[in-house]
Design brief:
Elements (H helix, E strand, L loop, with lengths): L5 H14 L7 H8 L3 H17 L3 E6 L5 E6 L3 H15 L5 E2 L3 E2 L8 H14 L7 E5 L4 H11 L3 E4 L10 E7 L6 E7 L8 E9 L3 H11 L4 E11 L11 E10 L4 E6 L4
Parallel strand pairs: 5-6, 5-9, 9-10, 10-11
Antiparallel strand pairs: 1-2, 3-4, 7-8, 11-12
Length: about 270
């Protein structure tokens, strides 16, 4: 790259950080890219970091030493997240979304790129202090939410299947008890999909009693993986027995009355 003016260099630096979140980039790389002194690059980074923090975009973490560099940690201000989630809760509270069994129709929200981006940013902000190697979710509706979160944490997504597939090679399959129906079900994960000892974040779209997530935790044990957190988009508030205790939810389904056609969704425990 040719030598840039400082204003152009700051723009390019900003793009580098936004496109590579949670990635440690050395000052030597920037110095060679812009043909500038490390001291000048450091001053530019301080300016960007100040703006990022003022605007609630995140922060730039500088690590000293030979193996050091700069890492962009995305975040979202709590008030901004709360305002966005209140809009989503209002949309979810429509009686037209009510499905048999106390479930909600959420496919339109989980298919909206703009909303997904915000939801992923919220989860990334909630778990930014954890060392996460992989995000895991169960097919199918949790997949876009997991990918949205992974784009901010810059980690891969692993999908747990209800049924094993030939294209995934050998798999680990376990039986688990569904928390809501109390039925024995199965889930599978390809042996090549998850490295032994990985630090894992579980993301799911809806949690009733938590049986599916508990099943995923049991599956992770087969890989000696370390559970670093659980993120749920919407949790049911009418469940008597919760199988999962430590989790973060963005929204909470507090009232469902199929007879009177009443639905109420409020903010989750993240707020």
């Amino acid at each position: 790259m040719k030598k840039l003016r400082r204003s152009a260099r700051i723009v390019d630096l900003t793009q580098q950080f936004l496109h590579q979140p949670n990635t440690l980039i050395s000052l030597s790389y920037f110095a060679e890219r812009y043909h500038s002194a490390k001291s000048s690059i450091s001053e530019d980074i301080d300016i960007i970091d100040e703006i990022f923090q003022e605007e609630g975009i995140g922060q730039l973490l500088t690590l000293a030493g030979a193996a050091g560099g700069v890492k962009f940690i995305p975040s979202i201000p709590k008030e901004e997240a709360k305002t966005e989630m209140l809009r989503i809760c209002q949309a979810l509270s429509s009686v037209e979304r009510l499905l048999p069994g106390g479930y909600l129709y959420m496919s339109d929200i989980l298919g909206n790129p703009k909303l997904l981006k915000q939801l992923g940013r919220m989860f990334a902000s909630a778990f930014s202090n954890q060392e996460i190697d992989t995000i895991i979710t169960v097919e199918t509706k949790g997949i876009p939410l997991a990918h949205a979160t992974a784009s901010y944490l810059n980690v891969p997504v692993v999908i747990v299947r209800r049924d094993s597939r030939v294209t995934e090679g050998s798999v680990v399959t376990i039986n688990y008890v569904s928390g809501s129906t109390k039925r024995i079900q199965t889930m599978s994960l390809a042996r090549r999909a998850l490295k032994e000892g990985s630090n894992v974040l579980v993301i799911d779209d809806f949690m009733k009693a938590g049986g599916t997530i508990k099943g995923m935790i049991g599956l992770l044990q087969e890989f000696n993986a370390h559970l670093k957190g659980i993120g749920v988009f919407v949790e049911s508030g009418e469940t008597e027995e919760r199988l999962i205790k430590d989790y973060i939810s963005l929204a909470r389904l507090t009232e469902v009355n199929e007879r009177e056609k009443l639905v109420n969704v409020e903010l989750g425990n993240f707020f």
